[in-house]
Amino acid sequence: MKQAEKPRCGKTYLVNTEGTIHQWDAPTITTEQIIELGGWEPSQGVIEIDKHNVERTLQPGEVIELKPGHGFAKKVKFKRG
User: Fold this and answer.
1) Is the pLDDT of residue 68 over 70?
2) What is the rounded CA–CA span in Å between residue 63 and residue 72?
3) CA distance 40 to 79
4) pTM score above 0.85
5) What HEC string does the chain produce?
6) pLDDT digit string (tens) for 1-27?
7) Among 7, 31, 40, 64, which one is most buried in terms of CB atoms within 10 A?
8) Residue 73 contacts by C-beta under 8 Å, 6 or more apart in sequence?
9) Cβ partners under 8 Å of residue 10, min gap 6
10) Taking Cα atoms as reference points, which of 68, 71, 64 lies closest to residue 37?
11) Using CA atoms in the order 76, 21, 64, 2, what is the torsion angle rounded to 10 degrees?
């Protein structure tokens, strides 16, 4: 599996895939990059879980805007579909 390609923007974002925190250096991430970070099969899809525990299924090719992560803040999480 190739490493997810990401442009560098100077800020570090935190992406949580099923409890594993990944550092991300870009303000956006695609559904496919989340799948690659999570290490699961694309056919399983991705569900975004926001800070209010609201779930939303992401579409293939969708671009998600990330907000800078802080260790004390709730983070947007992703899990298999």
Assistant:
1) no
2) 25
3) 10
4) no
5) CCCCCCCCCCCCEEEEECCEEEEECCCEEEHHHHHHHHCCCHHHCEEEECCCCCEEECCCCCEEECCCCCCCCCCCEEEEC
6) 445 555 555 678 888 888 888 888 888
7) 31
8) none
9) 25
10) 64
11) -160
How far apart CA 14 and CA 67 sit, in angstroms, is 8
Which residue's entry shows tokens 């899809």? 45
CA angle 43, 49, 51 (to 5 degrees): 165
Q: Any idea which fold 13-80 has?
A: Ubiquitin-like (UB roll) (3.10.20)
How is the chain split into domains, by residue range? Answer: 13-80
Distance between CA atoms of residues 52 and 29, nearest Å: 20
